[in-house]
Amino acid sequence: MKLDEYKTNSGEVILYQGKPDFEILEELALGTGDIWHSSFEQGFKNIFPELVYQTATFFWYLNDFENLEQCVSWRVNPYAFAVRKSTWDRLNGFDMEYKNPQLQAFDFGYNAVRNSGAVVLYVKDLFTTTDVQKINISARDRYTFFLKNFKLDHAIFMLYRQGFWKWKEWDAFFYAKRNFKKSKSKPIVKPKVLKPIEGNPKVSYIIPTMFRQEYTLQLLKDLNQQSYLPTQVVVVDATPISLRDENLYNQKAYSFELIVKWQESKGSCRARNEAIDLCTGDYIVFGDDDIRIPPNFIENHIRFLQTNKAGACNGLDIRADHQKQNLKDLDDKLQQLGDKRWIAGCSQMFSNANSCVKSDYVKQLVGNDVNFDGGYGEDSDFGMSLSKIGVAVLHNPFSVNLHLKPPTGGYRFWGTQAKIIGKKRKTQPWELDTPVKWITPVPSPTVMYGTVKHFTPQQVVEYKQKHFFLYLFKGPKVTFLYRLLRIPYKNIQFKKSLFYAKKLLALGKRTQ
């Protein structure tokens, strides 16, 4: 494919197709992205919704975001886009095995975001053409995309959902299966070399904790050894009065301002929101109480965001084998990861154990959604909410933590009641005015809430279909009949989960 070249004022070569605004392109070349397009106005917005058959609702970028000047979107227009030459060469351009140029561009953009650590951005008015293209993706194209990118199971599931009684679907499936195989690996765009920190930005670090004062003190020691010290550390401690030791936190022992707030409300989301209200930094780092961090942890977060001109990032979270491991063990695990560690690009998750966000964006979201308290999914909700206001959330492989995961303590203490049924059960926050009695909702109602909050009703249906498909066919063959007989009960559990999720949705996002 022949692309035109443009050399920026900084000397970088940008390849392009179509007629971009070079003044805008100059600014973009200095920023976050690697690939840019304006395809929303050209008929490409939310095209190829069949991706839901593979990813269900576990991919932030399944749907394109609304009413934004700039945001992550992998749906590239093959006739109007720009790309760094280094990125184009590294990713080997379009896959010419596809006959359809539109699918070539979709495959390129999708894999750039999901597998190769590149950032693909929609930018309004970069390409001013508003010619709306006719998108023509045939059944054969669909199955070719699935067979080249995913396991066979996903293509079979698409066949089931699109209509296994349709000969056209079977013909397309067998055509793709005969002619194409899943790619073994995808090339990786190397992260940018980190630049020194510009200026003297202030950093606030948030630690919500409960029943884990020993681990919190260990983390505070790590923070005190940072090469770039936080300005303040805010600890919100929910340990009950009868079990806490208020004298453990010696504020004079640290080189930063230590603020300790004893939490009277319940929930980790509320704890973080109470901490956010006390933060004065330019950046806010979110951390769990049970992690260990090396001395360059905070420095690398700030350097990474400044180098990439990004607003938020999710660090590399490494799971410890047991809670007694230390930073030497972390080094050993990073050695074992090797080159697999070095992927940046668009993050597809967000972890409150290790993330850094410009405080302006945190304040714009007004903190965490407390509808998630008592359950799971608050991390992903916060990260996706950042994406929906136009923040490119990146994965930062330079800021690494060791996650100790002790067997007891933490905010999940309150959530353990969710597994109990009957009179002994204590009501969870998400139950609102309808306590659970004898049937436990599955999946977690807060996870379901995140699904109905961010995805369309039809995509929720596909999530349900995938949930049951995996339950029925992914377990041991010997227990298949048992699982089949339990489908009616599982359906009741799913409906109960959806019931609570919709009640939370009706309340809207809450921050207190």
In short:
This protein is of the alpha/beta class. It has helices spanning 22-29, 52-55, 85-90, 101-114, 139-149, 152-163, 167-179, 213-224, 268-276, 297-308, 327-337, 359-365, 378-388, 412-415, 445-454, 457-473, 480-485, 487-507, and strands spanning 4-7, 13-17, 35-37, 70-72, 81-84, 120-123, 203-209, 232-237, 257-262, 283-287, 291-292, 312-319, 354-358, 393-403. The termini are far apart.
Features:
3 domains; single chain; 37% helix; Spore Coat Polysaccharide Biosynthesis Protein SpsA, Chain A; 8-stranded mixed sheet; 512 residues; 18 helices; 6-stranded mixed sheet; alpha/beta; 14% strand
Description:
By secondary structure, the chain is α/β, with parallel strands linked by helices. It has helices spanning 22-29, 52-55, 85-90, 101-114, 139-149, 152-163, 167-179, 213-224, 268-276, 297-308, 327-337, 359-365, 378-388, 412-415, 445-454, 457-473, 480-485, 487-507; strands spanning 4-7, 13-17, 35-37, 70-72, 81-84, 120-123, 203-209, 232-237, 257-262, 283-287, 291-292, 312-319, 354-358, 393-403. The chain folds into 3 domains: 4-179, no CATH class; 203-403, Spore Coat Polysaccharide Biosynthesis Protein SpsA, Chain A, CATH 3.90.550; 420-507, no CATH class. The chain contains 18 helices and 14 strands. The strands form 2 sheets. It has an 8-stranded mixed beta sheet with strand order 9-8-7-10-13-12-14-11, with helices on both faces. It has a 6-stranded mixed beta sheet with strand order 1-2-5-3-6-4. Helix 5 (139-149) packs across helix 7 (167-179) and helix 15 crosses helix 18 (487-507). The termini are far apart.
